[in-house]
Amino acid sequence: MFDYLAVLISVVLGLAVTHALTGASEAINRRRTVTPDWMQLFWALNVVLYVLALWWGMYWWHHLTSWTVQTFFFLTGYAVILFLLSSALFPGEAEGGFIANRRWFFGLLIAAHLLDIPETAAKQLDGLRAVPTPYLIVAPAFLTIAAARWWSPSRRVHAVLAPAWLAVLISYEVFSSLERIVSS
Q1: Cβ burial, residue 66 (10 Å; 0-12/13-18/19+)
Q2: SS3 content of the chain, % helix, strand, coil (to 5)
Q3: Residue-wise pLDDT tens digits, 65-104
């Protein structure tokens, strides 16, 4: 069953990465007529790395032997939220662009983080992977950053939180990988 689901998830997550990269590419290519928003490009980097990290993390599900329709729809819905997150980052010709879309973008980021909690817990409950210790710090940090940015329209706040979010992601990947190496 995992192979069947993996194809669907890979397509949806691949579209999310493609949308973020295409949006960044268009922003760079239009730089002579429209000044690129460095924060939007920074969040594009964040989204691409986040989607790739979650795509990698989805592989743990290949060990699951008994699948339910609820698990199938939950994981598919999670992937769809990530695609919508990427889409909200580059809204096309929408008036106001990314800044006008910030509540949608950060609302979807909050939704993605909230979905990640039961997804991570389910992996442990199904015996696929223990919840990494750093996750207990990282999950609230991600939610706090996304909620602060959803709430605050300040570009100064945004200028601090975009790199902070990336630092949390990279720290989590490094420390959870180190934890697995040490425990092996």
Answers
A1: exposed
A2: 80, 0, 20
A3: 889 999 999 999 999 999 999 999 988 776 666 777 889 9
* Contacts with 142 (C-beta within 8 Å, 6 or more apart), sequence order: 113, 116, 165, 168, 169
Q: What is the pLDDT of residues 21-58, one digit of tens each?
A: 999 999 889 888 877 788 889 999 999 999 999 998 88
The two structure tokens encoding residue 125 = 């409950």
User: For residues 74 and 25, is the Cβ–Cβ distance under 8 A?
Assistant: no
Rounded CA-CA distance 169/53 in Å is: 9
Instruction: Residue 183: name the closest of 121, 137, 142, 133 by CA.
Output: 133
Residue 179 — φ and ψ, nearest 5°?
-60, -40
Task: Report yes or no: 84 and 53 within 8 Å, Cβ to Cβ.
Answer: no
Locate 38 and state its tokens: 């460095």
φ, ψ at 16 (rounded to 5°)? -65, -45
The Cα–Cα gap between 24 and 19 comes to 9
